[in-house]
Design brief:
four-stranded mixed beta sheet; alpha+beta; 43% helix
């Protein structure tokens, strides 16, 4: 998208797709007629990338940030060249993985990532014990050496802590979780440039602006 003409526009003259580009675009800061428009997303991605390489912040901070970014995209956007996600009330992380990372709805990896997100963000734990009998439980351990996102045990854990054994452990590569955030943002931007992205917010451009953008007057 050509942003050079934005210098002749006030912020309230930008279209919803221009605001989406400002949100998703890597520049992070755009000159307008009445000031500067900045996005929180590139800053978040920069902080995630910084934290992932630091010994004392690489195991929690970048994972939390990555899930935040993934959910932000799934909450805000969808695409009109894919079949609509069946459950409109599904988690934003599930929608992001479906629309922008090519995961099948309800796939094993989607279930695992959703469980990890809930357990990790709610109580900083890698044990995700399902609340319902028809949902899977997991005991996760990080392993940066596996060449897949998730490596499942031969015998899944049934959620019973009293009978848990180490061989029930599910391995997950945290680097691939972090990479997913960047992949999903880039995919959403590509969809915008291909004219297949839709802003899926109740209040449209006004909500997009106030949630994820900042306007600084000269």
């Amino acid at each position: 998208m050509d942003t050079s003409t934005w210098k002749e526009k006030n912020v309230d003259e930008l279209s919803i797709f221009e605001l989406a580009y400002a949100h998703l675009g890597g520049a992070g800061s755009y000159r307008l007629k009445d000031g500067w428009l900045k996005s929180i997303l590139p800053i978040t991605l920069q902080e995630i990338n910084h934290a992932r390489h630091m010994e004392y912040s690489k195991n929690f901070v970048p994972i939390v940030g990555a899930f935040g970014v993934i959910e932000q995209i799934g909450f805000t956007y969808k695409r009109n060249d894919k079949v609509e996600y069946l459950n409109p009330n599904a988690s934003s992380i599930n929608k992001a993985l479906y629309y922008f990372a090519d995961y099948e709805e309800g796939s094993d990896d989607v279930k695992a990532l959703y469980a990890l997100r809930n357990s990790f963000l709610h109580n900083a734990s890698l044990m995700a014990k399902a609340l319902h009998a028809n949902k899977p439980s997991y005991y996760f351990q990080f392993d940066r050496e596996i060449d897949v996102l998730v490596q499942y045990p031969e015998t899944p854990w049934d959620g019973n802590i009293l009978t848990f054994k180490p061989e029930h452990t599910t391995l997950i590569n945290p680097e691939r979780v972090i990479d997913l955030a960047r992949i999903i943002v880039d995919s959403a931007l590509e969809c915008l440039e291909s004219n297949v992205l839709e802003v899926d917010l109740e209040c449209g451009e006004r909500e997009l602006f106030y949630r994820f953008l900042k306007h600084f007057l000269d």
